[in-house]
Amino acid sequence: MLGSNALTKTVFGVGFAALIAVAVFAQNPATYKMPDLLHMKTSPERDDLWLSTRVGSFKLLPRGDVMPSGTLTMSFTGSVLSSDLKGQVIPEGSVRKEYDNSKKGKQVWFGTGKLTITGAFMAVQWFGRNLDAKFNGNGFIRLYGEFDKNLDTGYYWFDPKDKKFWGTYGNGVGIPEMKSTVRPNDVKTRQEFEKKGKGGG
């Protein structure tokens, strides 16, 4: 049988452990909630994104449980895979349908020419060369590029005055464009910081 000191230590130890567990639980951030892929939504949001690269690939994806939707017009050489498209595809030039599996919702188009995809979809993926494209709609796009003979990976832009590098490492871009809240005047040089004794963003 436990003595009074041993009993007191045991109760204290159990109580202390319980307090630590509560504190740790309270500090844990909310767990990530997976999007409900069985109940995807569409959005009426629209923005214009232009894409241009000589060698590369991209993939248009959902934002959470919101399916990409809009109109994608692209001139290219290469392959395009669409998944669960609720809309239509209009090919031009030598672009031809190479694969069509309605049960799995997959279509593959291949060739050189132009393709216009209109509607909502789970994903559209392109790989190839000489891409010039415009997407009017909403979604999330991931860009993968390779250096061409001029050591250029290509560009993407919402505003032709503000073209951004395509990149090589899976650059992710939300559509519509996400505007930064940082103002130019908030950023100070080291000289300004040391002179005024206070910093900016």
Map the helices and strands:
Elements: H1 4-27, E1 47-61, E2 69-83, E3 86-93, E4 96-101, E5 106-120, E6 123-145, E7 155-157, E8 164-165, E9 171-175, H2 190-196
Antiparallel strand pairs: 1-6, 1-7, 2-5, 2-6, 3-5, 4-5, 6-9, 7-8
Can you walk through the features of this model?
The structure is a single chain. The protein has helices spanning 4-27, 190-196, and strands at 47-61, 69-83, 86-93, 96-101, 106-120, 123-145, 155-157, 164-165, 171-175. With 201 residues, it is of the alpha+beta class. Strands 1, 2, 3, 4, 5, 6, 7, 8 and 9 form a 9-stranded antiparallel sheet that branches. The longest helix has 24 residues, at 4-27.
